[in-house]
Amino acid sequence: MLSSFLKHQPGPVRLPHIIRLSALAVGLLGLLPGCSKDDEPTTPTVTNPDRISVPQAAVHPEGVQWDEANKRFIVSSRTKGFISTVKDDSTFAQLADNANLISTIGVNLDAGRNRVLVAVSDMGANTARSTAATLRKRAGLAIFNNTTGALINYVDLGSLPGTTTYPNAANYPNHFANDIAVDKDGNAYVTDGSAPIIYKVDPQGVGSVFFTSPQFDPGTGFGLNGLVYHPDGYLIVAKANTGTLFKVPIATPASFTTITNAAGLSLTGADGLLLTDPQTLLLVSGSQSTVYRLNSTDSWANVRSTGTFATGATSPATITKRGNDAYVLYPYTATSPRFKIVKVSF
């Protein structure tokens, strides 16, 4: 953008000395980089700000979680791999890093166990860490201590037994660990966007293929994406390329059902999910630049839309709850000079 310049009128200047100096200062500020009228302030003046604009270049975060105890957001990085924190005043700090973190996607804060769980993949966005062996093959779960950032465990999901023996496995040799949900017992569930798999990692760090189904096949697009754990003992899982929602019981995953979209609403591009209460689900559609508020009154057999939030010219990714509010992540592109975390309003 072009900077704004002061316009000077012809004729003698008769302003007092102090006013002349003030005008000069304003003019000089208009010439400084990053001070154009289109830049957003990085330090909000209120708590729970409407938006936090983070001046960090090329981070491209995909996952976001609110950490109430420490009053900060936790974000991933598709291009750098490390895990970082963001305060309301835009302060950005690295929390954790590890050589296994090629691209970090979904993030889950298991606050009761003081753990940060991170889905790890490799689609080539992090050129510093991507290799021929990991490109489009990496699916991992990294678990860190939320206080110290120390690595607790790393589980290579893509090489688990069962990842090559399910029906149609030969058609989906690639892997992409996408999003994470944690149940009441501390078991983590991870979706694979490139293969029709939901993984499970128990509290001791033992991984397994939790469930796979031909209905989860990604086809030529991007398959399983966001998921959440419902306190009644099941997962709600989104499939991005079709916008389908599945209800998958923890105890009997083979009895999963497709949630009927009563309104016939298109949910293609479904990404992050957030359960704000047992009957209300927020769904982020990146391709539609929209956050949908969905409601069910029959234990998620059917769903209807009760509101939308348009994000504008961006592709929102994931969403997190902060008190009574929800905040959605705008990652922008891999080369963007900043990213934003924005309060959702219906």
Automatic annotation (TrEMBL):
<dbReference type="InterPro" id="IPR053224">
    <property type="entry name" value="Sensory_adhesion_molecule"/>
</dbReference>
<dbReference type="InterPro" id="IPR011042">
    <property type="entry name" value="6-blade_b-propeller_TolB-like"/>
</dbReference>
<protein>
    <recommendedName>
        <fullName>SMP-30/Gluconolactonase/LRE-like region domain-containing protein</fullName>
    </recommendedName>
</protein>
